[in-house]
Write a structure and sequence with these properties.
The complex is a heterodimer of chains A (192) and B (388). By secondary structure, chain A is of the alpha/beta class. Helices cover 34% and strands 20% of the residues of chain A. Chain A has one domain: Pyruvate-ferredoxin oxidoreductase, PFOR, domain III (Pyruvate-ferredoxin Oxidoreductase, domain 3), CATH 3.40.920.10. The relative contact order of chain B is 0.12. The chains are: A alpha/beta (192), B alpha/beta (388).
């Protein structure tokens, strides 16, 4: 069982990202579950979504995820207010939408070396493909491209299909954003 | 060919309603139900379902519209939640008393005040005596199937049926659901034939629901109860038919690891997944002979079937995500009552948990199991995790 927690802000597409990830993993043969943290969503407010992916023989519990294997952060300013590392398992990836280098997060945000950081400039990629606006880019599909590359949990092919199925508009632009993020994500060198 | 789609509990309802060829949909939006009728309104607007979508000013009117439609022989559907269901209350009695096989999806949401949009079962359980049949669901697949089985049973016994799914934990959770083709659903569910006595025909005017004297009213109520009793047999037949067409088993309850279980946890709804996880873990780690009985159909109540599987156990714990104020958890009281006629009956312990959407984890369930194992005497209500 792989458990993932997605942090974003209302309007960035965190819940849709979670759904697309589930769809992609299902296409790769896994049993899946995707759900938002049940709140009353507002634009700009912190939003959390969860994914469970595993074998169809496993029992999928329905509680929230307290100890995720990996974490995805759609807006780096969330690091200032939300403990995105809370409960994260050792060796887990933190995939952040940021133009900065992964190393910066160990230095500037005191991330323990227990965690592996990957960064991708998903906002820039989203704007380039016309997803959302410059002030409010919709970064969900781009960040999933990065997740596919970094974790290998879902294949890029399945991700593309899941995006085409679930993106309400601009399907190919969303696919292109995911591919570009897949190719440009920066990963920290392996932890010693 | 059927296909599997990763979808929410809400949309699983919409797809099942679409395939059931519902003719009238009337609803008023309420969180967390709204997505059900939102998708249906799109399906109707696009001409994919030959139905009339009636927008109304309240849930009371939504049920009234379904009642009118069903009385003319149309297959009717609505969906609601919590305060919306409470506002329908008067019309729920009407639908059942008029013997109309309306199917409704209720998304279990806690009642206000204080205001909440999260799950517990008090909204639907408050309607147990209205004459509606009720099915509770653990997964989105069960939700989907329950709508189709629901119409099939409801239309044979002339009773309305409510299928119940947990707010957010099912309604907004995406997971794989097998969606069937129109041909497959048609094979199982023929068009609604209300028969001679249940249809309003302008060429044959009759009175419906008029003032009925004490000399006759009593028998109307007896017949509603008889219809519920008959529904037990109809459910059995239709569960079997459903399995033949769709390949999935359903029953009044699901038995999980029950074969040699000395101890049984009885529960319902989405909570059951966490209970199953904890039970499987304790079996594996401690060799504890424990199983789960997940209640599905609670109206009509399957007395005989429940007695058959629970009579010969050492201890039973019932976990309720509801509270019948001044009494106890509703599933707990009903189960105790069902077991009472048995000569040898196990002690039953009642736990309350997860009210108002408080998250429930497998660790919470393990605590409950530990607690049950230590207890000998049946005791008062036990609140798990309440802050004092």
């Amino acid at each position: 069982m792989i458990e993932i927690r997605i942090h974003g802000r209302g309007g960035q597409g965190s819940v849709v990202a979670s759904k697309i990830l589930a769809d992609a993993a299902f296409r790769d043969g896994m049993y899946v579950q995707s759900f938002p943290q049940y709140g009353v969503e507002r634009r700009g407010a912190p939003v959390t979504a969860f994914n469970r992916m595993g074998s169809p023989d496993e029992i999928f519990v329905r509680s929230q995820i307290y100890e995720p294997d990996h974490v995805v952060v759609l807006d780096p300013t969330l690091l200032l207010t939300v403990d995105v590392l809370k409960g994260l398992k050792k060796g887990g990836w933190v995939i952040i939408n940021s133009p900065r280098d992964p190393e910066d997060f160990y230095k500037d945000f005191n991330f323990p070396r227990d965690y592996k950081v990957a960064t991708v400039d998903a906002s820039d990629i989203a704007v380039k493909w016309g997803l959302g606006s410059k002030t409010q880019p919709i970064v969900n599909t781009a960040i999933l491209g990065a997740l596919s590359k970094v974790t290998g949990i879902v294949t890029l092919e399945s991700l593309k299909e899941a995006i085409r199925e679930n993106a309400p508009v601009k399907k190919e632009e969303n696919v292109n954003a995911a591919v570009e993020a897949y190719e440009s994500v920066k990963m920290v060198q392996e932890v010693s | 060919m059927s296909f599997k789609k990763v979808t929410t509990g809400n949309h699983a309802v919409s797809y099942a309603v679409w395939s059931s060829r519902v003719q009238i949909i009337s609803a008023y939006p309420i969180t967390p139900q709204t997505q059900i009728v939102e998708l249906l309104s799109e399906i109707v607007a696009e001409g994919k379902l030959q139905a009339k979508f009636i927008t109304v000013e309240s849930e009371h009117s939504a049920m009234a519209a379904c009642i009118g439609a069903s009385a003319t022989g149309a297959r009717a559907f609505t969906a609601t939640s919590a305060q919306g269901l409470a506002l329908m209350h008067e019309m729920l009695h009407w639908a059942a008393g008029a013997r109309l096989p309306i199917v409704m999806a209720n998304v279990n949401r806690a009642m206000a005040p204080p205001w909440s949009v999260w799950t517990d079962q008090n909204d639907s359980l408050a309607q147990l005596v209205t004459g509606w049949m009720q099915i509770y669901n653990e997964s989105n697949q069960e939700v989907y199937d329950s709508v189709i089985i629901g119409y099939k049973v409801a239309e044979q016994v002339h009773l309305p049926l409510m299928t119940v799914l947990d707010a957010f934990i099912l309604s907004h959770t995406s997971e794989p659901v097998e969606i069937h083709t129109q041909e497959e659903v048609d094979e199982y569910l023929p068009p609604y034939d209300p028969g001679e006595y249940y249809t309003i025909k302008t060429e044959d005017p009759r009175g419906y629901g008029l003032l009925t004297m004490p000399s006759d009213y009593y028998e109307f109520r007896y017949k509603v109860q008889r219809a519920h009793e008959r529904a037990i047999e109809v459910f059995k037949k239709e569960f079997k038919n459903f399995e033949e067409v769709f390949g999935r088993k359903h029953w009044f309850f699901e038995e999980f690891m029950m074969d040699d279980a000395d101890y049984v946890i009885v529960t319902s709804g989405s909570l059951s997944s966490d209970v199953k996880y904890a039970v499987a873990k304790l079996r594996k780690e401690k060799g504890l002979k424990i199983g789960v009985l997940k209640m599905r159909v609670v109206r009509p109540y399957p007395f005989e079937e429940v007695r058959k599987v629970l009579g010969d156990r050492k201890k039973i714990a019932v976990i309720d995500r509801n509270i019948g104020f001044g009494y106890h958890g509703v599933f707990y009281e009903e189960l105790k009552s069902a077991l009472y006629p048995l000569e040898k009956r196990p002690p039953v312990f009642g736990y309350i948990i997860g009210i108002g959407g408080r998250d429930v984890t497998p660790a919470d369930i393990e605590d409950i199991i530990d607690d049950m194992l230590k207890r000998d005497e049946m005791t008062e209500i036990i609140w798990k995790g309440v802050r004092l």
